[in-house]
């Protein structure tokens, strides 16, 4: 009984415990709910308190922007955390456009994303041009790469509030748009005020003179305008130059949302045999025994709107065409040429199946969303500044190379450049250009070409400086040939106008083509869809088959722009044809013809000689260009991107005959240069050193340089040797002396400058340049060129250096030449005119004085 009573007691107590526990639990739950319940209310209170009683301006779009008093806040949807953006800087207005152009995007856009860690919101920099962008294929390697290349934090923001349902986060971004952020520097380091890069700029933001101006929010982007004032100081190293000014500018910061991974354009792998701007990533793979770099083209994302029609060979419009908006501030007479230049590229896109791929529109006047300073819009802008240039930069999605925005800037004085080029290069044949003010017809021809060239850059194309070398010189005197091909196979070359055509040539084309053969080919390589390819590697194999089909044809050859120094005479700027000597000979005849007739053509319109001063300077510069182009053949070598089966070697020395002919041409021109002084023209122009003396001095120093010849001879013993080159200098610089003739002024100047250059060349101590301290530090030059071994002949981008070393130990040859010259002049000292004898006597004393120095 006791046991039963005890068990009953235990059961009752257990039941009571369970009931009590359940009641306690219920009570506890109620208390927990009570504890959490105020949170949304607190959030609501914090969010509301941010705006309560304050002057607030709000814009809603991709994200919501609030201006509360003098502060700016972003309200970022939580679903945009970890989404990637481009954040770019554009100048909308400025007090001095020599610092940066209106509409210019001088600094690369930032590739960023936002993330919340603990209670702080961070902006992270996803990619950066100076930081390796690495990827791998295998899972384990990918994990290692991820740990080794984490995304750095760029800026921290204190979270001000969440909205009521915590779907957005609010943070203060005032400092981001009013701070002195050098990563979003609005200044152009190569602007006119900075002497196109020669001056060093220090610009300090004055926050007391800076403020937030306006802001906009749209479905896929936002824009923030700030007025920023800087104290700018420009200096030049090792000089006393200093320039200071206050610069105020309105700066637009645009932020656009980039596509998600599944919507990204498939990159097209690049091939260095076709000139595209590229981005790259480092690949950690095991298919080869090293890490490699993957290069991909910069190009627009053009997809056929109807793939089935496209496959059948029908023209289709792209899903998203390339649209350029043309500035309404351009002179009215320029507008048609600009639109035509843009749309010219449709011819190339039609060849690969697209219609209306490239479109142009004037700035819309009734579209509230349109903003030319926004990254969303690609524009052609007018720059009212005295610079003779135009340019076509673009911005890309760094993950794929997709061009997101492009701009063309047309500086006002591009018309001055056009006028001078047309006169100096074509006035021998084209009566329309013999005037200080070109007709609308002529200007239209030239502007259309300039715009098409710059839009080519906006499509991703680099300069192709080898294009014009595909044409024989005499072909450019043929009416039929020039009507078909223009002056070059590519408008991406710097082959301007037909300076080869002679006064009697009838019907010859004088301008570059609308599009050249290479331009059609390059667009195919970059943009023709390959629907059968499953990935970028399969696509590359197809694209390279197109390239292989053109291998060996000079019309399709790509030659890089040569920066710092020029090695390949077939890939030069401002040249025509495959023969610099023949082209220069024709060009010089034309310059002499123009100079002879210039007064008769211009007396009526150029009453104060202002125009002739510029044109005379242009004639001298054009002549110098002809000599430079020829002289670069001496010791020159052809450079190619070479693949197995191409039929082209990466490096080949010019044939001896071509080098020798070019050297003799230059020396003969310098010996007979008196014509360029043209007293009947120059007597009314500015007073200065005769052009003949300036040019002879310049090229005499270039003649006495065997580094290039030594390099070529080192690589190919059958080529032009330094000894043969010096023998030719002796035979042609002293040709009149050898024959016992009196010397012209040009010949005297040439001989003097060559002798001085030889003395410096063989490093006789008391003839070195500079003071005693500098003399002690002087080193004998023995290398063909200061070489950066990291940059080989082959690869992507510009041609900077040639990775090749060669000793230039020719001092004994120069010394031998000096002795030959000395003995020759001694033998002629008592013959010829008084001026000739005095010249020999002076040079002999100079040589003897140096040789006898102790």
Name the poorly predicted regions. 1-39, 765-793
Number of helices: 24
- Helix content class: 25-40%
For the CA atoms, what is the radius of gyration? Answer: 35 Å
Structural class designation: alpha+beta
Large-scale geometry: globular
Strand content: 15-25%
Largest sheet entry: 12 strands, antiparallel
How many domains in all?
4
- The averaged pLDDT comes out at 89
Distance between the termini: 138 Å
Got a strand count? 23
Characteristics of this structure?
disordered N terminus, 854 residues, 24 helices, 4 domains, six-stranded mixed β-sheet, single chain, alpha+beta, 37% helix
Characterization of this structure:
- One of its GO terms (molecular function) is metallopeptidase activity.
- Residues 110-305 form the DUF5117 domain.
- Residues 437-737 form the EcxA zinc-binding domain.
- This protein is of the alpha+beta class and 854 residues long.
- The protein folds into four domains: 2-36; 47-258, no CATH class; 265-578, no CATH class; 583-854, no CATH class.
- It has 24 helices and 23 strands.
- Strands 1, 2, 3, 4, 5, 6, 8, 9, 10, 11, 12 and 13 form a twelve-stranded antiparallel β-sheet that branches.
- Strand 14 and strand 15 form a beta hairpin.
């Amino acid at each position: 009984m006791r046991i039963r009573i005890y068990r009953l007691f235990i059961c009752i107590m257990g039941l009571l415990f369970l009931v009590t526990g359940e009641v306690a639990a219920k009570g506890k739950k109620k208390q927990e709910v009570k504890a959490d319940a105020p949170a949304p209310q607190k959030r609501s209170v914090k969010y509301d308190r941010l705006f309560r009683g304050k002057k607030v301006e709000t814009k809603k779009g991709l994200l919501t922007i609030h201006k509360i008093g003098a502060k700016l806040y972003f309200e970022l949807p939580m679903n945009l955390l970890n989404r990637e953006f481009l954040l770019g800087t554009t100048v909308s207005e400025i007090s001095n456009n020599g610092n940066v152009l209106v509409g210019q995007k001088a600094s690369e856009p930032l590739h960023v994303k936002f993330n919340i860690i603990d209670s702080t919101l961070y902006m992270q920099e996803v990619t950066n041009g100076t930081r390796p962008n690495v990827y791998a294929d295998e899972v384990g390697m990918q994990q290692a790469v991820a740990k080794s290349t984490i995304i750095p934090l760029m800026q921290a923001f204190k979270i001000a509030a969440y909205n009521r349902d915590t779907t957005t986060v609010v943070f203060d971004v005032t400092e981001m748009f009013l701070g002195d952020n050098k990563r979003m520097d609005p200044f152009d380091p190569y602007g006119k005020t900075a002497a196109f890069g020669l001056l060093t700029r220090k610009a300090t933001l004055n926050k007391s003179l800076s403020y937030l101006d306006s802001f906009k929010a749209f479905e896929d982007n936002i824009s923030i305008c700030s007025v920023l004032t800087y104290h700018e100081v420009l200096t030049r190293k090792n000089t006393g130059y200093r320039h200071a000014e206050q610069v105020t500018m309105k700066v637009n910061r645009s932020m656009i949302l980039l596509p998600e991974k599944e919507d990204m354009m498939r990159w097209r792998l690049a091939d260095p045999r076709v000139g595209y701007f590229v981005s790259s990533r480092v690949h950690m793979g095991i298919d080869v025994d090293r890490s490699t770099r993957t290069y991909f083209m910069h190009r627009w994302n053009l997809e056929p709107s109807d793939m089935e029609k496209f496959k059948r060979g029908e023209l289709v419009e792209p899903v998203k065409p390339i649209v350029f908006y043309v500035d309404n501030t351009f002179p009215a007479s320029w507008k048609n040429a600009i639109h035509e230049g843009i749309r010219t590229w449709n011819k190339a896109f039609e060849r690969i199946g697209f219609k209306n791929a490239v479109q142009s529109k004037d700035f819309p006047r009734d579209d509230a969303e349109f903003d030319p300073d926004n990254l969303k819009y690609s524009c052609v802008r007018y720059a009212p500044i005295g610079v003779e240039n135009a340019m076509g930069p673009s911005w890309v999605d760094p993950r794929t190379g997709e061009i997101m925005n492009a701009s063309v800037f047309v500086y006002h004085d591009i018309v001055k450049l056009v006028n001078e080029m047309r006169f100096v290069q074509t006035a021998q044949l084209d009566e329309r250009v013999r005037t200080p003010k070109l007709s609308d017809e002529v200007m239209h021809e030239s502007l259309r070409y300039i715009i098409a060239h710059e839009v080519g850059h906006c499509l991703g194309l680099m300069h192709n400086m080898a294009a014009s070398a595909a044409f024989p010189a005499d072909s450019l005197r043929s009416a039929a040939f020039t009507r078909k091909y223009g002056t070059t196979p590519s408008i991406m070359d710097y082959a301007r106008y037909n300076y080869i055509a002679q006064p009697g040539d009838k019907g010859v084309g004088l301008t570059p083509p609308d599009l050249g053969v290479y331009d059609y080919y390059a667009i195919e390589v970059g943009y023709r869809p390959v629907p059968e390819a499953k990935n970028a590697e399969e696509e590359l194999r197809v694209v390279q088959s197109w390239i292989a089909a053109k291998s060996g044809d000079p019309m399709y050859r790509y030659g890089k722009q040569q920066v710092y120094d020029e090695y390949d005479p077939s890939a030069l700027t401002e040249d025509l044809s495959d023969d610099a000597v023949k082209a220069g000979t024709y060009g010089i005849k034309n310059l002499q013809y123009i100079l002879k007739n210039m007064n008769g053509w211009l007396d009526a319109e150029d009453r104060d000689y202002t125009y002739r001063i510029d044109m005379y300077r242009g004639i001298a510069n054009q002549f110098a260009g002809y000599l430079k182009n020829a002289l670069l053949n001496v010791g020159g070598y052809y450079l190619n991107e070479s693949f197995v089966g191409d039929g082209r070697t990466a490096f080949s020395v010019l044939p001896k005959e071509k080098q020798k002919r070019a050297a003799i041409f230059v020396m003969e021109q310098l010996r007979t240069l008196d014509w360029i002084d043209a007293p009947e023209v120059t007597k009314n122009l500015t007073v200065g050193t005769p052009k003949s003396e300036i040019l002879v001095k310049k090229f005499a120093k270039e003649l006495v340089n065997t580094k290039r010849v030594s390099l070529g001879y080192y690589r190919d013993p059958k080529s032009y040797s330094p000894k043969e080159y010096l023998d030719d200098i002796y035979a042609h610089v002293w040709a009149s002396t050898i024959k016992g003739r009196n010397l012209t002024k040009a010949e005297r100047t040439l001989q003097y400058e060559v002798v001085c250059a030889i003395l410096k060349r063989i490093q006789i101590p008391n003839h070195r340049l500079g003071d005693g301290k500098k003399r002690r530090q002087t080193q004998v030059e023995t290398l063909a060129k200061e070489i950066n071994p990291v940059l080989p002949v082959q690869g992507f981008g510009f041609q900077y250096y040639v990775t090749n070393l060669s000793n230039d130990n020719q001092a004994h040859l120069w010394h031998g030449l000096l002795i030959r010259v000395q003995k020759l002049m001694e033998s002629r000292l008592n013959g010829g005119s008084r001026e000739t004898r005095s010249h020999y006597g002076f040079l002999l004393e100079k040589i003897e004085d140096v040789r006898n120095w102790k």
